[in-house]
From TrEMBL:
InterPro entries: AAA+_ATPase (IPR003593), ABC_transporter-like_ATP-bd (IPR003439), ABC_transporter-like_CS (IPR017871), ABC_transporter_ATP-binding (IPR050763), P-loop_NTPase (IPR027417). PANTHER family: ABC TRANSPORTER ATP-BINDING PROTEIN. It comes from Paracoccus amoyensis. This is ABC transporter ATP-binding protein. Keywords: ATP-binding, Nucleotide-binding, Transport. GO terms for molecular function: ATP binding; ATP hydrolysis activity. It comes from the Bacteria. Residues 5-234 form the ABC transporter domain.
Amino acid sequence: MTGIIEVENLSKQYGSGTKALSDVSLSINEGEIIALLGPNGAGKTTLISIICGLVVPTGGTVRVGGHDIRTDWRAARKLIGLVPQEITLEPFETVMNCVRFTRGLYGEGPDDAYIEQILRSLSLWDKRDAATKELSGGMKRRVLIAKALAHRPKILFLDEPTAGVDVALRRGMWQVVEELRREGVTIILTTHYLEEAEAMADRVGVINKGQLLLVKPTAELMGEFGKKTLTIELDQPLTLIPDELTGRNLRLTADGRSLCYEYDTRAERTGIARLLGDLAELGITVRDVSTQQSNLEEIFMSLVSEPRQEESA
């Protein structure tokens, strides 16, 4: 099935020689939420900017809704709404007029009822007549989202949408994102709040040094790269791990009251049953056990900090 966005062998090299993107290929399905993760300077914003027609690529092709972004740019851009990282608003214009103006830029006629709907959903209706300079940073970011939605786009790009936004506003914004997903809007976001990507995204893509390292369903990524740690709380503290248990990937906590055992969730056998049996044979009484799954942040850091071996052809 052809995605609503098709990126093939995309590259971008600036005049200074800096390679921002290198041979990136990506297919995004209609109606999904995909999170793009990567450190600062990884190429996330460059990728978004090229798809949105703001930056010209050095090589490769991009199609949005079947339209080439270079040869059929007008039709492609009409499908897209973009919420940029930077807050750029006319400081003396009202919230209502800002959104009206953006709608007009896309050739759409007046529709104040629809704009009211957007502003209400973003808790901006009470601020409709306020100049944007009077708003807080979080409210200004909401105005950017309203502007991006003004022409009813099928695709919404959110580039660090919750940066500088307080917890209450952040939760409200994600409720809006979830509602847009239910309406069939395709959403591509970049974020440093990895717990949000883990909770919201259908798929996660990891970009580092201009290369797309992987794109996987979030649950699959968690399962494939996630480790689990079994914490075994002991009835009596130990001073050392017994010799009989060496080589088991065990760690004794500083107070000696717990053993931590890390295991691979994909392994056919975890070794937990054998470990607990050996503890019983050694006369070590277990008070309690608990497990903790690696989160997306830990997985992300392992991907961008360790060299990945290229698969052989």
